[in-house]
Design brief:
Layout: E1 3-6, H1 13-26, E2 30-33, H2 52-60, E3 66-68, H3 76-81, E4 90-94, E5 100-104, E6 122-124, E7 132-136, E8 139-143, E9 157-162, E10 165-170, E11 175-180
Parallel strand pairs: 1-2, 2-3, 5-6, 6-8
Antiparallel strand pairs: 1-9, 4-5, 7-8, 9-10, 10-11
Length: 181
Amino acid sequence: MKLFFASDLHGSLDATEQVLAEYHRSGAEHLVILGDVLNHGPRNPVPESYNPPKVAELLNELSTSIIAVRGNCDSEVDQMLLDFPMMSDYAWVMLANGQRLFLTHGHLYNTDKRPALKQGDVIAHGHTHIPVAEWQGEQIIFNPGSITFPRDGYAASYGLLEDSTLSVKTFAGDVLASISL
């Protein structure tokens, strides 16, 4: 299974178009959105090309391929625009090798506040806008970064699970972080 990860779109049409173009090029089976889909939130500036209705329209075209969780900037009003569920605080994905991916946004569960996880499980979250793919203790921490508001000098990025490797990549093709499962 090939998965494409995006987080923290924050209603930016340009960012969403870039993510979707790369998702289609990647050949991934599913687009995993780790929260903060339509709203920019009160602590962030209004993003360039802010257009939540159009972002929702573009994402709805892929509704059967999207796995999404709620971010701290997502609300029931946002859900009304989307044809796929995104109000769950977390979701699980089971890999063929028996490994589990715990998908969440990062404001409730994260690197420092983990749910009950087994050795070798992956916690995939956004929220910090900082790319990560590494072992921390007994689990793998994975964060695809953000395309709309990358932080700490990182370029806009996305994540990919392909051939038992989790990687964070820039849209220029550079690998920011990578780890084998």
